[in-house]
From TrEMBL:
Coiled coil: none annotated. InterPro entries: AraC-bd, Homeodomain-like_sf, HTH_AraC, RmlC-like_jellyroll, RmlC_Cupin_sf. Keywords: DNA-binding, Transcription, Transcription regulation. PROSITE patterns: HTH_ARAC_FAMILY_2. This is Helix-turn-helix transcriptional regulator. It holds the Pfam family HTH_18.
Length: 254
């Protein structure tokens, strides 16, 4: 394992071992756009990590992990303090894992397995003994882990580029967006349905949920978050969050 300093460069593709693990604690870090030949499991232990992928925005709140298949171009941005673990799997092992990008829950068992695996050396023998069992269990837990709706497809239409360029800014209501881009609500809705699989209103609500989790994971209170996302009251925000996430903000972070 390497405890990665924010100033360190790290290339997982130079190692021969089938699995390579690192640990890090970053403050306001931006990885820049990059890709690697190994699949990556990026686990946020504390704080949140925003990952920009191919036409998708991914939010990684605490106790969740993102599975990024080999060769996928991505950029990880961490605000405030983000404490994370990362495992890089060889192409052969990655082929046994999901072929799509996904965000998964990290349960108690997988948490313990990941913590044990990132402590292994870069030349660890994963073919026998305790580490072979850890690797087998890790792969199976990743395949079976529940997926969470923390991915937001991004539209490709150039008229809507402004929405993607400023992911911290609350997307406007449909009527305001009509005036900004010079297109009717029906046209905008058709574009979103075609390019993201959801209508604009549904897309905007998913954005608000992900941004709410990001703000609260960074330490902002409920009232601040509700106001930043355009809710008239804390109770309205709690109701929205419960409808979208299945629980209250307090329960989510507990």
């Amino acid at each position: 394992m390497a405890w990665l300093d924010p100033r360190d460069a790290f290339d997982p593709d130079i190692f021969q071992a089938p699995v390579v693990g690192i640990a890090a604690s970053m403050v306001d870090h931006d990885s820049g756009v990059h890709r690697h030949g190994r699949g990556q499991l990026l686990y946020a232990r504390r704080g949140s990590i925003r990952i920009t992928l191919a036409q998708q925005l991914c939010l990684l709140p605490p106790t969740r992990a993102a599975w990024i298949p080999p060769g996928v171009e991505h950029r990880a941005v961490m605000r405030q303090i983000a404490d994370y673990r990362s495992l890089y799997f060889s192409p052969a092992l990655s082929a046994t894992l999901p072929s799509d990008i996904r965000v998964i829950d990290i349960g108690p068992l997988l948490h313990v397995v990941l913590e044990s695996m990132v402590q292994a050396g870069f030349d660890q023998d994963w073919a026998r003994g305790r580490h072979a069992h850890l690797l087998g269990l890790c792969l199976e837990e990743i395949r079976l882990a529940p997926c969470r709706p923390m991915l937001l497809p991004l539209p490709r239409d150039r008229r809507l580029a402004g929405l993607c360029a400023r992911p911290d800014v609350l997307p406007p209501a449909l009527g305001v967006l009509e005036r900004q881009v010079g297109a009717s609500g029906k046209t905008i809705s058709r574009i979103f349905s075609r390019e993201t699989g959801m209508g604009y209103q549904q897309w905007r609500q998913q954005w608000r949920l992900m941004r709410a989790i990001e703000l609260m994971a960074a330490g902002h209170g409920l009232s601040h978050t509700a106001g930043a996302l355009g809710f008239a009251s804390d109770s309205a925000f709690i109701l929205f969050f419960k409808q979208r996430a299945g629980c209250t903000p307090k329960a989510f972070f507990k």
